[in-house]
């Protein structure tokens, strides 16, 4: 009998991501030599198939199959694990698939320190992952600030910890457990904020060192996979707290949409994200080429040529210029870009514009100049 359908689907999604990573890392898998374990003549190992031996830190996988770890020095992939069903299902699948491809797999669980007993829970999650054979496994405490609100501050602290761990441990990638449901929530949040197509494109399957293998699978599949493999999970109470915007979208907004618009809303929103991502990628490429052609020898932008571009491309060029000058990406909103755009399309002698990060945008002698104030 094969694995539970949810387990099989998650393993397949993870296998595809890990195969791509192994190809990028130039890994060729060579099966390690197995040393026979002493046992009475003719007697098989207890709990193992005849002819199999567990070596090193190769604990038995929840599937019941023994797993041999990749050789020391093989490329390392980390899994970001909160202890919830999504990340635990991802970690279990990665632990099962990675050694087949010649990759080591470890994990990082981040303790945000926002709840009583969070350090103990992080330690428990880390120990559970070690028993599944992931190595190295770290529980990392972080200090959550206040910038951007509690959700954004926690996210910033979490990614900073993951980046630091990946750099220190030399990981080739970090796997994240976001599902199709998370993608749908992200699209709805982007709509509510009046964001542009890049925000409505949701979360990418790949960005830098981060990979999201489960974006095509729903949250229910991860719960089914953990249940089928008898893996305990922890439900973060913050995920049900209406004080958090994403929690309200998850438990109030999406159920109402499903009720009144019929099933398939989550799938439709995730599909919308993919379509927007294709459009946004194409426009970003166009903007990158346009910016190169518009930039003058002094590093400014030719306003007359900017005015000839379609608005969607022009705003992307302006955003790229503002970011290059030092604007924080998270603080540069559509309203800022619309105001900058008036320096091109509605020039009436306006004075300098003050942008986030202490950046100033000015029109001077037919060009747009972006610089930090005081430079």
3D architecture notes:
The protein is α/β, with parallel strands linked by helices and 375 residues long. The protein has 12 helices and 10 strands. It has a 6-stranded mixed sheet, with helices on both faces. The chain has a 4-stranded antiparallel sheet with strand order 7-10-9-8. Strand 5 and strand 6 form a beta hairpin. About 8% of the residues have low confidence.
TL;DR of this structure?
The chain has helices spanning 5-25, 85-101, 118-131, 150-169, 180-192, 197-200, 219-228, 245-261, 265-294, 303-307, 311-325, 334-345; strands at 76-80, 104-111, 137-141, 171-175, 206-207, 210-211, 301-302, 353-355, 359-364, 367-372.
Instruction: Give the topology string: H per helix, E per strand.
Output: HEHEHEHEHHEEHHHEHHHEEE
Which percent range describes the beta-strand content?
A: 5-15%
Shape: elongated
Question: Share of helix among residues?
Answer: 40-55%
How large is the count of helical segments? 12
Mean pLDDT: 85
Q: Please give the order of strands in the largest beta sheet.
A: 3-2-1-4-6-5
Structural class: alpha/beta
Rg (CA only): 25 Å
Give me the count of strands: 10
Distance between the termini: 69 Å
**Main β-sheet: number of strands, strand sense, barrel status?**
6 strands, mixed
Taking pLDDT < 50 over at least 5 consecutive residues as the criterion, the unreliable ranges are 29-58
